[in-house]
User: Fold this.
Amino acid sequence: MRNLELLVANWKSNKTIDETETWLHDFSEGLNKASIGLEDRRIIVAPPFTSLEHARYCAGNLKLAIEFAAQDISPFIEGAYTGAVNGKQIKEFANYVIIGHSERRREFGETDEMLEKKVAMALHFGLTPIFCIQNENTPVPQGIKIVAYEPPSAIGTGNPDTPENANNVAIKVKDRYDITHVLYGGSVTGQNVASFMQMPSIDGVLVGGASLDPLKFLEIIKNA
Ligand code: PEP
Assistant:
């Protein structure tokens, strides 16, 4: 039986609270208009920390069957770690957390060792990590069940990997680690999503740029 599809929207450092509310209203309206069912798939939206609480509140009011992810997590428990948001705090609003995105590795100097600590914290607080790998050799920490394969050359460039190559990476990673889902991420659009979802070892997509527009994200869901 095919895995439950996971479709993840990563908003990165975008959207105010007002913009978050508008996105959710437009998404809900579009979903109803197009009669898109979410039964056999899980939609996970990753807003910035500042919007997470309000996003969850609005989704509840709109009766939207979506889940939320944080985009990062502190590698430490609560306490004297200025600026850090820890797993206990995230768990109040989200069930998932994205860890190891190449932008965090590149722009914030996150190392494999730090990412292992973040994964341990996520698991400790009952969050499901969505762990990003850049290629088939990126180490995957223990306890990870969901991996997102995102080649940096494909992120935000309009140059996605080929579905065949993404599928080969997914096969290798599933052979090597005890994981349930491999998602593909990197310039996914409504036009190319089906070609990735048709691949037998790909279980979903992680979408950056195209998820900022609720109608584009809906098109991805519709065509997935
Ligand atoms: C991402 O943010 O992980 C991503 C894949 O971005 P984009 O869809 O814009 O390439």
Remarks:
- The pocket of phosphoenolpyruvate is lined by residues 10, 12, 101, 150, 155-156, 185-188, 206-210 (CB under 6 Å).
- Residues 5-223 form a domain with the TIM Barrel fold (CATH 3.20.20.70).
- DSSP finds eight helices and eight strands in the chain.
- The chain has one domain: 5-223.
